Amino acid sequence: GQNIDQPTEMTATEGAIVQINCTYQTSGFNGLFWYQQHAGEAPTFLSYNVLDGLEEKGRFSSFLSRSKGYSYLLLKELQMKDSASYLCAAVDSNYQLIWGAGTKLIIKP
Amino acid sequence: ETGVTQTPRHLVMGMTNKKSLKCEQHLGHNAMYWYKQGAKKPLELMFVYNFKEQTENNSVPSRFSPECPNSSHLFLHLHTLQPEDSALYLCASSQDPGGPSYEQYFGPGTRLTVT
């Protein structure tokens, strides 16, 4: 079966760094998305990785290891507005997105 | 403003009611999607439309009926729902469903409660 695993909830301190992990098992693989979803709002696109390595975009970076079926989202210089759920989604061989349940990130002052 | 709008934002309905959810995208995209998001659960893909044609139907019960009159509008008709259907229903669009690099743009969702 196809499966995405990510932690249910994480807590971090304002100004710190946090890493949200995601492991995936899919039939075929055509890349991995990270989305941010604030409570009661629509998910919004953060990143897409298809090649191994780290991609940096401002305070957010996303890493992919295809051989390990593993990705992480790294958030630096955390701000209170970063409190949200972070959704990991892998693209399978049929180009369908397989979604994780999301990681709720709580930022404390 | 994400370019994808959904109405209503909140809906409470009885199990015998019939209602419809509406989605409109202003992005010129070719593909539209309906998702169900239960509490603390992964997004579940329900339906995919590509150029107004339904291309995916992930074993969704017949009490959910989609309609796509054109590439900008998508409806989800609801009838005789069950309490377990209570969830956030999200609409999304993308340039092309077959392209893995084309991210999906989501609407704000309809919070549905079935009593």
Distance between the termini of chain A: 40 Å
Total number of beta strands of chain B: 11
Rg of chain B, alpha carbons: 13 Å
DSSP helix fraction of chain A:
under 10%
Cα Rg of chain A: 13 Å
Characteristics of this structure?
heterodimer, A: 109 residues, mainly beta, 5-stranded antiparallel sheet, 0% helix, globular, B: mainly beta, 4-stranded antiparallel sheet, 11 strands
Q: What would you note in describing this structure?
A:
Chain A is mostly beta strands and 109 residues long. Chain A has strands spanning 3-5, 9-13, 18-25, 32-37, 44-49, 53-57, 60-65, 70-75, 84-91, 97-99, 103-108. In chain A, the strands form 2 sheets. In chain A, strands 2, 4, 5, 9, 10 and 11 form a 6-stranded mixed beta sheet that branches. In chain A, strands 1-3-8-7-6 form a 5-stranded antiparallel beta sheet, with no helix packed on it. Chain B is mostly beta strands and 115 residues long. Chain B contains no helices and 11 strands. The chains are: A mainly beta (109), B mainly beta (115).
